[in-house]
Amino acid sequence: MKKIISLILAVLMICATLMAFASCGKKEDTLVMATNAAFPPYEYKEGDSFKGIDVEIAQAIAEKLGKKLEIADVEFGSIIGGVQEGKYDFGMAGMTVTEKRLESVNFSTTYATGIQVIIVADGSAIESLDSIFVFDENGDPTGLQNPEIKVGVQQDTTGDIYCSDDITNWGLNDVEEDGTITTDRVVRYKTGAEAVAALKSGKVDCVIIDNEPAKSFVAANEGIHILEGDNEYAIEDYAICVAKENTALLEQINKALAELTEDGTIGKIIEKYIPTSN
């Protein structure tokens, strides 16, 4: 009986080893990037093809590392978890470095800067940040002009994170010291396009999202516009997330980013999608 059990265990160990080798061999020459391809011009799809700033930068990184790039299009909120679990080698989706995210993954050096802006319907009573917040003499928010305001965001993005905070931290919610939200004014959608559709149908009063996708949404939809002037909601840096234990890949990505910045590749990619002449 013991011999049979030992034989079974040995066979199982051999199978596990062979599977591990097969798995490693399958991905040996491939980098799997997790993204959410609904965030133009950083990542989007044309037919079956992936396009955008992040896609082209990721491709350039893969080429630097002598790898093939494979792209997994997933919900934004599942990217970090998938990178943690090893399903994906890295996540790249117009992703901002935050303290909360740093608890789960590491981030590369910055490769682009994003601005969170406010989209409103034409004729909206919201004409500036002053239309949303009540400010003290120091310019800090102390309350809302309209406590019934509803704000649309793409769930799990930094727009969602920022808006979900307390009003005194430039959020739109009432939040207790322990983090409990007592009044939630944020309406979360799976994509920015859904949030914009909600704005057009009057379900939300405004949408807060990155400036570049915002410009694409406004161009594709009549009757909405971005608040202009000094009305940016937040300014942030984008980076690539990597599993904490995968320090070797992080170092390789940072080295590739430095070289691609130095030789002008990243600048040309960004200029292609966001011309400075616009």
Uncertain segments are 1-26
Sheet-strand content, in percent, reads 15-25%
Q: Helical residue percent?
A: 25-40%
The CATH superfamily of the largest domain is identified as Periplasmic binding protein-like II
Q: From the helix content, strand content and strand pairing, which structural class follows?
A: alpha/beta
Fold-level CATH name of the largest domain: D-Maltodextrin-Binding Protein, domain 2
Mean pLDDT value: 90
- The helix tally amounts to 9
What would the principal axes of the Cα set say about the shape? globular
* CATH class identity of the largest domain: Alpha Beta
Main β sheet profile? 6 strands, mixed
| Domain count | 2
* Number of extended strands: 17
Radius of gyration: 22 Å
SSE order in H/E notation? HEEEHEHEHEEEEEHEEEHEHEEEHH
Q: Which CATH-level-2 architecture of the largest domain?
A: 3-Layer(aba) Sandwich
* Terminal CA distance: 77 Å
